[in-house]
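We store sequence with structure; for instance:
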Amino acid sequence: MDATARLDHSPGGSVALARVEFMALTILLAEDHRIVRQGLRLLLEAVPDLELVGEAADGLEAVHLAERLQPNVLVLDLMMPGRDGLEVARQVTRRSPRTRIIILSMHSNEAYVLEALRAGAVGFVLKDSGAEELVQAIRYVSSGRRFFSEPISEQAVAAYARKATGAPVDPFHTLTAREREVLQLTAEGQSGAEISERLFISPRTVESHRANLMRKLGVRNQKELVRYAMQRASLPNSS
């Protein structure tokens, strides 16, 4: 909580200093690159009406912190280890529905923006934007509006969405949240044992998820699954 002061004129003409308290906007920052995260932290901490309440270095941590802290705004990198930014957005939307989500990305094409909106984001800020633009985005989304960095526009995203309607269903859409997690960790080169430890599930359950992934994605073996996972890691995912 922060406070500011105002002049209070009494009926007798005297002037008193009254204190008006206001609640700062609470921000959770999710960015896996430490140097970028430190820069964003300094930026946010320099703004009086913004309060940085937590930081996450991977997607799993971001979901857990958002659920526990229930921040006003989550500033979220699109490409996160452990759980990608779009999956984080989906889960935070369910677990902390009042949290407004801003995606940070280097990608400006409409496909990424559309998938971010479908995942629950309400803002999309490019990483080459100025510091003041991120602060503006936080204030915009906190007031119930959407925010897009230039050259992105809501009209362009809507036009892309209309064009994409009726396109063949991507088999990725049929994957469960847990299967997507296993696929993400596979793309990062983690072994079955490492995935088991990371997700707190048994090695047998990991293999079961991988078998389901191969069946749903139409790949024949682990090598093809790894190749698919690595290719998918560079593309915008879908809900």
